[in-house]
Design brief:
The structure holds two protein chains of two kinds. Chain A is an alpha/beta fold. Chain A is about 35% helix and about 30% strand. Chain A has eleven helices and 13 strands. In chain A, the strands form three sheets. In chain A, strands 5-6-7-3-8-9 form a six-stranded mixed β-sheet, sandwiched between helices. In chain A, strands 11-12-10-13 form a four-stranded antiparallel β-sheet, covered by helices on one side. In chain A, strand 11 and strand 12 form a beta hairpin. The two termini of chain A are about 40 Å apart. Chain B has one domain. Helix content of chain B is about 70%, strand content about 0%. Chain B is globular, with a radius of gyration of 20 Å. The two termini of chain B are about 35 Å apart. The chains are: A alpha/beta, B mainly alpha. Chains A and B meet through helix 3, strand 5 and helix 4 of A and helix 1 and helix 5 of B.
Chain lengths: ~325, ~270
């Protein structure tokens, strides 16, 4: 199957003028600007197959938004090649953009002072959607995203959750095959997040829409993405199925043991004590070397255990680990 | 080709309708504009009358001719403000990343910029302009023949295109400087001085500047001179000026469009 997105050796160079402080500094930078070149994106390659939901994550300033903007035709790369649905966004922006839906969490594409429905009508014309498909699509979107209640409300009066749902609907009206979501759940309450996550799973399942999700909310990533690409300092540092990345970076689990009475010797060759709070002890053990049940058996032979729980490392732990080890000094 | 035109017309008319609705949301603004603009322009023409009566004709241009000139400039300004007001926000959009959304849509970006807001309130600007122009035409002895009306329409279209080209080019500079220079005010003042008063009263180098480099003299001065057989200053151009203006307008507009396209390649968007 042909990749729906193909990126090779992508580079984006920025020219930065070094500014010095104070009045003398400002005058100096005006007359003798010290320009340095800086690669916001420094050689990125990946390919995404149709129907994947990929999390594209990284710390602030890692080059995520820059990559996404080059994929969507907003920015021009300095070097490298991009193909979206087989077409280069730089060669034929309009053709590529027709197949893309893009949602920026922090900026809306809806008209502030008009009813939600008016913005949809405009988009129908811009994308030249035929009336039948438009009405069908709108009905489905209104239903799944529950827009009936505020379809006729001016956008400026909508809550953030409502506006986000409106923006997502707007991005899907023309039935794009690829959806880019930039912080789609930012600032939303638990209910709204849940609704949006369900929507994404749904359109991926029923319509095979490829989804690229850029977010700092790792719950989103955990719930939705089968694969994550981690970017740092303009380069890809991890790319693979979410399970294996977590396993690779945080190959340990946690066993929390609560004792019946205080004990002196808490050590065990199979695990390390990470923390102790009164009668509660946190043991960290390697998944590879011992299973949870074996460790419990070993510990219960020497300790009077009242209660146990097993904790899995989550995406957040793994990602923090990546950011830490790949940060520039 | 035809379907593309239909597409663009359909989107433009949708935008025009939405623009009216958006402007109707703020009736108080409409009302205050209705008061302010006529006062501004009528006081301008009154001041001219005082100057001419008190002193003497400006460079051989008497009051009727000056009124005609003033009115002609006002009309092309008024119509420009209705259709091209978004060219005034190009530098803001560059800095705020406003072009991102336009680039994500399968249509020409410049078209989206211009067509997305039709400033109907600007039609109010046209009213005093039309009144002053018609009055000036009467007292200056302008003949309302079919040929003249045809020439007038061409001159107005050309004038609007030249104005649009000017503001577009100035706004496009922001793609490189990335600062809010806001040349809009400066451009408006320059336009006022060169279109509402006879160019012939300025020194030669300014006349040359406004004829050959920034051809705003073609917006109203040269056409008015041609229509009224008045003194067109130190520069003599062959052929009827009424034919020059739309041609200059189209050329300038195409050049400005090219500069804009080139500027878009340098677009760096904004932050996140």
């Amino acid at each position: 199957m042909d990749a729906v997105i193909e990126v090779k050796d992508l580079v984006k160079e920025y020219i930065i003028v070094k500014k010095e402080s104070g009045l003398r500094g400002s005058i100096k930078s005006l007359l003798f600007p010290k320009k340095t070149k800086f690669n916001g994106v420094n050689g990125i390659s990946f390919s995404i197959s149709p129907g994947e939901i990929v999390g594209y994550i990284g710390p602030n300033g890692a080059g995520k938004s820059t990559t996404i903007k080059m994929l969507t035709g907003i920015l021009h790369p300095t070097a490298g090649s991009i193909k979206v649905c087989g077409i280069s966004p730089q060669a034929d922006r309009k053709a590529v953009v027709r197949k893309l839906g893009v949602v920026f969490g922090q900026r809306t594409q809806l008209y502030w002072d008009l009813r939600l429905g008016e913005s949809f009508e405009l988009l129908r014309r811009i994308y030249q959607i035929d009336q039948v498909s438009y009405e069908e699509n709108l009905a489905v979107l209104t239903d799944v995203l529950k827009l009936h209640d505020f379809m006729n409300t001016p956008v400026r009066q909508l809550s953030l959750g409502q506006r986000m749902r409106g923006d997502i609907a707007a991005s899907m009206l023309h039935s794009p095959s690829v959806l880019f979501l930039d912080e789609p759940t930012i600032g939303l309450d638990a209910d709204a997040k849940h609704a949006i996550r369900n929507f994404i799973k749904e359109i991926n399942r029923t319509r095979g829409v490829t989804v690229i999700l850029t977010t700092h909310d790792l719950d989103d990533v955990e719930q939705l993405c089968s694969r994550i690409i981690v970017v740092n300092n303009g380069k890809i540092v991890e790319d693979g199925p979410i399970g294996s990345i977590i396993h690779k970076l945080t190959p340990h689990r946690m066993l929390v043991v609560e004792l019946q009475e205080p004990c002196q010797d808490l050590t065990t060759p199979h695990a390390t004590v990470i923390k102790q709070e009164g009668l509660k002890i946190w043991y960290q053990f390697e998944k590879e070397s011992i299973s949870a049940s074996e460790l419990i058996a070993a510990l219960s032979q020497k300790l009077p255990i009242q209660d146990i729980s097993v904790k899995e490392p989550n995406v957040e732990d793994a990602i923090r680990e990546v950011y830490k080890t790949t940060a520039t000094v | 080709m035809v379907s593309t035109i239909k597409h663009y017309v359909s989107v433009a008319s949708c935008w025009a309708r939405l623009a009216i609705q958006r402007q109707l949301e703020y009736p108080l603004f409409l009302f205050s504009w209705l008061l302010m603009i006529p006062i501004q322009y009528f006081s301008g023409i009154w001041m001219l009358k005082i100057i001419v009566d008190r002193f003497q004709a400006l460079n051989g241009w008497d009051f009727p001719q000056l009124t005609f000139l003033y009115g002609l400039g006002l009309i092309s300004h008024g119509i420009f403000v209705v259709f091209f007001i978004n060219t005034w926000s190009i530098d803001h959009m560059v800095i705020n990343g406003g072009f991102d959304r336009l680039l994500l849509r399968p249509m020409n970006v410049f078209f989206q910029l211009v067509a997305s807001y039709v400033n109907f309130i600007g039609l109010i600007d046209c009213i005093p302009g039309i009144i002053i122009f018609v009055y000036g035409a009467e007292i200056a002895g302008f003949e309302w023949s079919l040929v003249n009306i045809g020439k007038l329409i061409l001159v107005l279209i050309g004038g609007i295109l030249i104005r649009a080209a000017l503001f577009t080019s100035l706004g496009t500079i922001a793609f490189w400087t990335k600062r809010n220079g806001s040349m809009v005010g400066f451009a408006l003042t320059m336009l006022e001085r060169a279109t509402m008063y006879p160019l012939s009263m300025y020194p030669y180098f300014l006349q040359a500047l406004f004829t050959f480099l920034i051809p705003i003299g073609f917006i109203s001065f040269y056409p008015a001179a041609e229509f009224l057989h008045a003194d067109s200053g130190g520069i003599d151009l062959p052929l009827s000026f009424a034919l020059w203006t739309p041609v200059v307008g189209i050329i300038c507009f195409l050049i400005a469009g090219g500069i804009f396209k080139f500027g878009m390649k340098n677009y760096e968007s904004a932050g996140s």
